[in-house]
Design goal:
two-stranded antiparallel sheet, five-stranded antiparallel beta sheet, alpha+beta
Length: 364
């Protein structure tokens, strides 16, 4: 129950933002679902009729986020949600908000019955605790659900495997890393509608099932870190080094209660501020290592290409030298053959007979 109480405190951090979102949403016209959009058009448009029929046959549970499990585990409670354990088999935990069921954790899959931003983020945070985030998450379901979940995952720094969602994921990262330009609460994708689920990709059913405790403090630090922009990062860095803060930086770190206050009255980091700072540097270090690995990989590739070019050049040089040797041997052989052909055609030189000498002297 301590984890559950800690999760409730984390949920308190989001109540003010949720209330503001609810107030704003109540003043705006409701966004129609795909089914509501197609129904009045289906009578006259055959394409709309076909799409409506497909929408009616859609399985709501097919909207999902998949990941690779690091270990078998029991479902755990999540922040701000009441829970009801179903012994099964299979064992699962149902989560409800204000008495209405919003998701079910089935160990290898978390089914979502409401896919507003709050519940998508809750499912992603649970997935972060459960699954191997080095492998990333697989998002399945309607296009609206996948796009919205990919952006939120990008803001949270959680990898996704879907190739077609990488651009949307990058937009989410851009919203966090360049929030000075985009604004902290900028919505880049349309809100998701309908239902969905969070599933573990390539789940391992052979492991033993064990309870897994959610790190409430890490989740709280992650939630607060996600609300900071680049200026907030700089303010945290200055506070951690006991450097003076500007009034704007001080306001940004003071928060509105003990659950959001990162500095005290002397501009020193609170224990919560220290956890957020540690989380910030851990993320920065991870991204730096990834960049360095990319650079090392690029340097290795360049060195391999350079060596390959040198080897090819050496091979061409040796081939040319060998060709010259062969050419010289062929030329020598041809000259020898020419000499052998010319030798029989020449007439033999005969020696002239020697005349006998005569005695020219006179006898007496």
């Amino acid at each position: 129950m301590q984890t559950f109480e800690a999760a409730k405190q984390i949920e308190h951090l989001q109540k003010q933002q949720a209330a503001e979102r609810k107030t704003l949403a109540s003043s705006l016209p409701l966004v129609p679902t795909l089914r509501e959009f197609l129904e009045p058009r289906a009578e006259h448009d055959p394409v709309a009729a076909r799409l409506l029929e497909q929408e009616k046959r859609r399985d709501p549970a097919q909207q999902s986020i998949r990941g690779r499990r690091t270990a078998a585990m029991e479902p755990e409670v999540l922040d701000g949600l009441t829970h009801d354990i179903e012994d099964g088999p299979p064992k699962c935990v149902h989560y409800a908000r204000d008495g209405e069921r919003v998701m079910t954790d089935r160990g290898e899959r978390v089914d979502l019955y409401h896919v507003d931003d709050r519940e998508i983020e809750a499912a992603l945070r649970l997935a972060e605790q459960k699954y191997d985030m080095d492998k990333g998450l697989q998002l399945n379901g309607s296009r609206e659900f996948q796009q919205r979940a990919a952006e939120i995952a990008g803001r949270m720094g959680l990898k996704v495997q879907n190739p077609e969602l990488q651009q949307t994921w990058q937009l989410g990262r851009l919203q966090t890393l360049q929030s000075e330009e985009l604004g902290a609460d900028t919505r880049l994708t349309a809100p998701a509608v309908g239902k969905g689920s969070v599933e573990a990709a390539r789940a391992d059913h052979g492991g033993d099932r064990r309870a897994y405790t959610v790190d409430a403090q890490a989740m709280q630090a992650e939630a607060l870190l996600g609300k900071l922009d680049i200026r907030g990062f700089d303010a945290l860095d200055r506070a951690s080094r006991d450097q003076p803060l500007t009034p704007e930086q001080r306001i940004q770190l003071q928060g509105h209660d003990d659950q959001t206050r990162l500095i005290d009255d002397q501009d020193r980091l609170t224990p919560l501020g220290e956890r957020v700072t540690e989380r910030m540097w851990a993320k920065i270090e991870t991204e730096r290592e990834q960049l360095q690995q990319q650079l090392r990989t690029r340097n290795i590739d360049e060195e391999l290409k350079k060596r390959e070019a040198q080897e090819q050049k050496q091979e061409r040089t040796e081939e040319k030298a060998q060709e010259k040797i062969v050419e010289r041997e062929i030329a020598t052989h041809e000259r020898a053959e020419e000499r052998e052909v010319e030798a029989p055609q020449r007439a033999p030189v005969r020696s002239r007979p020697r005349q006998p000498s005569r005695d020219m002297s006179l006898g007496g």
